[in-house]
Amino acid sequence: MKKILAALLIIGTCSAFADVPASIESQVRAMLPNTKITKINYAPYPGMYEVLAGDNAFYLGLDNESEIIVGHIVNIKNMQDETQNHIEQANTKRFDFKSLPLDLALKVGKGKKQMLVVIDPDCPYCQQLEAYLQANQDKLTIYYLFMPLSMHPNAVPHTKQILCSNNPSKALFDIMVNRQELAAGSASCQSKVDKQLTSIAEFTRNNGINSTPYIITDTNQVIGGFNVPAIQKFMETK
Length: 238
Description:
By secondary structure, this protein is of the alpha+beta class. The chain folds into 2 domains: about 10-90, Nuclear Transport Factor 2, Chain: A; about 95-235, 3-Layer(aba) Sandwich (Glutaredoxin). It has helices spanning about 20-30, 80-90, 125-135, 155-165, 170-175, 185-205, 230-235; strands spanning about 10, 20, 40, 50-55, 55-60, 70, 75, 80, 105-110, 115-120, 140-145, 215, 220-225. A 5-stranded antiparallel beta sheet has the order 2-3-4-5-6, with helices on one face. A 5-stranded mixed beta sheet has the order 9-11-10-12-13, with helices on one face. The N and C termini lie far apart (about 45 Å).
């Protein structure tokens, strides 16, 4: 792909989405060799295909290798975001919770419901999420994977302050919610955290996770961002 059109909302009136045959899938993948594709469907327009890539979606035709359409298709008869529905359906097949790198995570809580949460300690939405999760720790066991973003210059030091603390779960709350500064920890601990972050970065990169917060539940559901209704529904589901 040489050019990507500006993001836009496509209004559709039908939902003729279906899986594509292997021959079409191979052609689409050949056009996008550097894209980690989750799913490819027929789009409800002749000659167009829906390509899902993690939490992203776009539409293309095999006769145009220079341009793609980025956006969501909305069915105006029922006002359903069909693209988002497809993303969520595909995401349930992206991960196996039991196969996630939980050994790289900070474990907090002892609740029956489990989730892995990818966070940046300086991300505002992550901070809001942390305050919410702390209030529901009796229901959850949370595995925190730290993914400091380059836009937050203090995210790595704060990650080290948390993981090198004598009480990491308390340090997590103190730094993210109470906005405190803590001791950096020993040189050996900081070196260990650097290696841990390298392994986490490999996992997130290989799985197309590039934003925080990012939640994967023990039912393999993906919840992007600070989505209280989705988290609440997960906690209430038996």
